[in-house]
Amino acid sequence: MAISFFASTETGAAARGRSYGAARRAAVRANVDGYFALFTAAGGTPTAVQTWAERALDRTAAWAPELAEETAGVAAGAGLETWQVAALNARTEILAALSATGRGECSTAVVTRGPSPHTIQTWDWHEHLHRAPVVWEFETHHTVRTFTENGVLAKIGVNSAGLGIHFNLLRHTSDGSDIGVPVHVIARRILGEATTLSEAVEIARSARTSASTVITVVTAAEAASLEICPDGVGVVWPGADGVLVHTNHFLDPALAEGERLGTEQPDTYARLDHLRAQADALAHAADPTARAAALLSHGPSAAPVCAHPDPDEPITERWETLATICLDISASRLLVHQGRLCGVGPATWQCF
Prior knowledge:
Elements: E1 4-7, H1 13-23, H2 25-41, H3 46-63, H4 65-78, H5 82-89, H6 91-97, E2 108-111, E3 118-126, E4 133-139, E5 143-149, E6 156-159, E7 163-169, H7 183-193, H8 197-205, E8 213-219, E9 223-229, E10 232-236, E11 243-246, H9 253-256, H10 261-264, H11 267-277, H12 279-283, H13 288-295, E12 319-328, E13 333-338, E14 350-351
Parallel strand pairs: 1-4
Antiparallel strand pairs: 2-3, 2-11, 3-12, 4-5, 5-6, 6-7, 7-8, 8-9, 9-10, 12-13, 13-14
Helix pairs in contact: 1-4, 2-5, 3-4, 3-5, 4-5, 7-8
């Protein structure tokens, strides 16, 4: 099943959002339904979700007004209330406010040595949201191509300035219900505005957040993982071998004191150990299929880098590797395989 692609031609935020929402109307509405089912299963009431979504939109409007306008445009185009699309963009914050648990998502590896960095990550998420992904191309300060979810302003991606990002979930004891700027909105500003790692750090540190994530920023010159949480932003650098790996727990020593997900779901540590053990293989795997093979591992006897859902679990616990994404920084391209990591082959990649 192919990932959908949509290219916006509008340069104004509101107009871009409206055209995107209209073109992707059915998919955005389906994603709203999927996430509201998840919020309900995690204990969220419609009133609470709307309140949190409206607060997230207010925070967005204060921090990045044009992105609040774009959110409203998407909603108008899709025939939805603005707060419903705001809830999609604040899904990480709403789930943090609900103290939702789960195995977490994503394993990321970046090799910085050589003429051009090569990267890979899995996107592990809830199985019932397997139709959420879309690749969206648009113009802001740069041309941006982002692998995201229908209605969500950005996630993993590259821009024409030669900067790309990967995206992993984190959880921290400082996460809470006083909703801040959504982490997906932070990712969008980094892709839309940043040309260097230092600019990306500055954008991340300017936002007041209420939930945690790690955005791994890659340019031709350098790479680092920005660990974001309400207590601050930590910067994690590659090792001496030029390999930077991340799963779903904090590596910054100060922020790691508030680690939450790893204490509940320790397989994040096993996955990181597996990625570190594969450092040499990753360093020599310039081909995306070879990188995927280096990452591949299944639980329960080994680190579960490739996740398969258990149909007997509730929807909050049915985790699946829904996609694998590589960034081609030099060409500002995304390579995307839809489906589990164990299904990757030379012919399964889509290039955007």
